[in-house]
Write a structure and sequence with these properties.
The protein has one domain: Aldolase class I (TIM Barrel), CATH 3.20.20.70. The chain is built from twelve helices and eight strands. Helix 1 runs parallel beside helix 2 and helix 7 crosses helix 9.
Length: 250
Amino acid sequence: MRSYFIAGNWKMHKTVPESVALAKELVAGLRGCGEKLLVAPAFTALAAVAEVVKGTNILLGAQNMGPEEQGAHTGEVSVLMLKDLGVKVVILGHSERRHSYGEGDELINKKVLLALRHGLEPILCVGETLEEREGGRLEAIVGSQVERGLAGVSAEALKNVTIAYEPVWAIGTGKTATPEDADAVHAYIRKVLARLYGEAAAKAVCIQYGGSVKADNAVQLMAKPNIDGALVGGASLKADAFVPIARFRA
């Protein structure tokens, strides 16, 4: 049976006590859930949440990381620090990092390669703005982000990469690409991957959808042939919203 990867990106929300409380609710609510599950709290809460999810079916993720192992990089958090806390997955290239903080494909690729080198699973985020979509540049933008983000990633290493398609215009806006629109872009991403790595590798890659995913659209999205999971933002901040998404098959 097909397995899905449901990840919660808490963004810049939740104090440490609030994060611990939410993590405990999720551990209880998702016990026995057969999907691959992830929570990515703020850096300040990683250590505390790590203790809560240790030994459970929920993986610990980070929302970003620095491009170097260590050194004079004020304000950055390194891959070594994340591994030390028990982080297994790191979200890279999120549209908020690209558009609010100016991260480009070269920097994101450097982080992807560093994460893989240290045994972390990167979630590489790609997606177009509304202007790019309406200008007919969707495939050019998304294809370029995929290809440049994966530069230097071997076919073997690709097995540890998840790609998250997140149309920028649908993040936190309440707007969602229709399941058909989302699946069409996921299919295009697989086409790009097939060109780079071959059909079998492209078919095997997990591609999540991110962009105002909620319990009431999760079933329709996950039913599509090219959608393998969800990268959930706002709806991951409350257990009663996130648990039904993760248990969409129930």
